[in-house]
Amino acid sequence: MLDDPEIPDLLTPEQAGELVGMTKQGVMKLIHADRLPARQVGRQYVLRRSAVADYRETREHL
C-alpha cells in the first residue's frame, strides 16, 4: 500500500528542510508565509515531496 503511486510522498518539515538545505524552523517560516504549501494533520505539518522539489528548483535559479 505504501508503494501505491496514487498516494503522494509526504514529508515532515524536518525532512523537507534536509532536501532544500534549511532548518525545520526555516521551512515552518515558508509554510506560514504561504511560500511553501503544506497541510496540518493534528499538530504536525506535511508537505508533498513534489512541492518541496519545485521550491528547491525555483530557489536554485535565483
Shape: globular
Strand content: 15-25%
Helix content: 40-55%
Instruction: Compute the CA-based radius of gyration.
Output: 12 Å
The tally of domains stands at 1
Mean pLDDT: 90
Separation, N- and C-terminal Cα atoms: 38 Å
Order of helices and strands: EHHEEH
Strand order of the largest sheet: 1-3-2
Give the helix/strand class.
alpha+beta
How many helices does DSSP assign?
Answer: 3
Strand element count: 3
Largest sheet: 3 strands, antiparallel
Low-confidence stretches: none
Notes on the structure:
There is one protein chain. The chain has 62 residues and is of the alpha+beta class. It has one domain (10-60). It has helices spanning 13-20, 24-32, 49-60; strands at residues 10-11, 39-41, 44-48. A three-stranded antiparallel β-sheet has the order 1-3-2. Helix 1 (13-20) packs across helix 2 (24-32). The N and C termini lie far apart (38 Å). The model has no long low-confidence stretch (mean pLDDT 90). Pfam families: HTH_17 (PF12728).
